Amino acid sequence: MEELLEVVNEKGEVIKTLPRSVIHGDPSLMHKVVHVLVFNDRDELLLQKRSRNKDVAPGKWDTSVGGHVDAGETTGAALQREMEEELGITECGPVFLYTYIHSNPYETELVYTHSCVHAGEIKFNKDEIDEVRFWDIEEILRALGKGIFSDNFEHEIKTYIQAMGNRL
């Protein structure tokens, strides 16, 4: 059965529910997603290299965890589900950071970003992810604009830096 997503307004209020295939490809239909920025104890950020089979940003480095909020699901439930599905993380204690809108010619997302520190094992989903590794923030900044990150992650990291008051 196809994934159902809620079309929302800027406040996250549900307008209607539609299949993912209808929402993706139509940037006028905003939907909710969750992101989790997973850091290690050295303040390095875990990034995932998206599978080349993904329909969005194949082969690009992306946010630690990211996924849709299914119809009827809370953002808290979605982030727990996505952390476990993508990285095998069940305990992390994510903390809410901020919300922003990301739009490109393919889709528009209302993003709910959280962060956590994780020192345990990472068992990433090899069907969705080709590779994971921790990056130093300075290394990420040097690589921005060079085509190795998803456009969503480039927006995410700039939003994160601004939210942290440029005090990284």
User: Can you tell me the CATH topology?
Assistant: Nucleoside Triphosphate Pyrophosphohydrolase
**CATH-assigned homologous superfamily:** Nucleoside Triphosphate Pyrophosphohydrolase
The global form is: globular
Distance separating the two termini: 43 Å
Rg from Cα = 15 Å
- Assembly context of the chains: single chain
What is the element layout, followed by pairings?
Layout: E1 4-8, E2 14-19, H1 20-23, E3 30-39, E4 45-50, E5 61-62, E6 65-68, H2 75-87, E7 95-103, E8 108-117, E9 129-135, H3 137-143, H4 151-163
Parallel strand pairs: 3-8
Antiparallel strand pairs: 1-2, 3-6, 4-5, 4-9, 7-8
Question: Please, could you describe this protein's structure?
Answer:
The protein is of the alpha+beta class and 168 residues long. The protein has one domain: Alpha-Beta Complex (Nucleoside Triphosphate Pyrophosphohydrolase). It contains four helices and nine strands. It has helices at 20-23, 75-87, 137-143, 151-163; strands at residues 4-8, 14-19, 30-39, 45-50, 61-62, 65-68, 95-103, 108-117, 129-135. The strands form three sheets. Strands 6-3-8-7 form a four-stranded mixed sheet, with helices on both faces. Strands 5-4-9 form a three-stranded antiparallel sheet. It has a two-stranded antiparallel ribbon with strand order 1-2. The chain is globular, with a radius of gyration of 15 Å. The N and C termini lie far apart (43 Å). The model has no long low-confidence stretch (mean pLDDT 94).
